[in-house]
Amino acid sequence: MSPAIALAFLPLVVTLLVRYRHYFRLLVRTVLLRSLRDCLSGLQIEERAFSYVLTHALPGDPGHILTTLDHWSSHCEYLSHMGPVKGQIVMRLVEEKAPACVLELGTYCGYSTLLIAQVLPPGSRLLTVERDPRTAAVAEKLIRLAGFDERTVELIVGSSEEVIPRLRAQHQLSRAELVLLAHRPRYYLRDLQLLEAHALLPAGATVLADHVLFPGAPRFLQYAKGCGRYRCRLHHTGLLDFPAIKDGIAQLTYAGPG
Questions:
Q1: pLDDT at 14 (0 to 100)
Q2: What integer pLDDT is reported at residue 12 of this predicted model?
Q3: How far apart are CA 10 and CA 21, in angstroms?
Q4: Distance CA 42, CA 193 (A)
Q5: Beta-carbon neighbour count of residue 136 at 10 Å?
């Protein structure tokens, strides 16, 4: 390419970089820098975060552990976790609904698990599912460090597609009054339909789905709005540490099989 042609494209490149600078920064922090640190340390980001928590957080204090994770993500390495803004929405809804049993799909590092567990009514259960064994091991340690035993929080390792059909038989989950979808948005619709097919959603159940705007779950939202079995509400937020990138949590209320 000649210098004259390259120069002609320069304004377009500059315009794109300025317009999408937030996405570019996100790419650098979540992919490039993270991959480099993984190689240099031999540890995954979740393992590095847990090491920080061990030396800076108070054991048995879930609130302090969550604050420590937020601080580490903002000042050390971007963790891509739920964060305090979305966390307040989730905690408020858990307190409002007071569910006897909560199902979380996508434990990740355990951040949202602790958010939910600390506001559960006495005697309630939280079942959380994580497909990656190495990430699940970190989440397990974080959950126990916060002071929650297996009677309150049970972590199940496996893919949601395999776990959901055996929840009733193997984990004594007859129904979940509140479900949090926080794994991969492209699986939200499949897993919602699995929950329906196995009669795990009672009438009035609340289904919360994170990241429905970024990276987005359009087929899931289209189904929830169009099937006639859900009342839908969208809680608009920005992406953690990138408020210019619009995201949101979908809140569905299940009316029953119809």
A1: 56
A2: 57
A3: 16
A4: 38
A5: 22
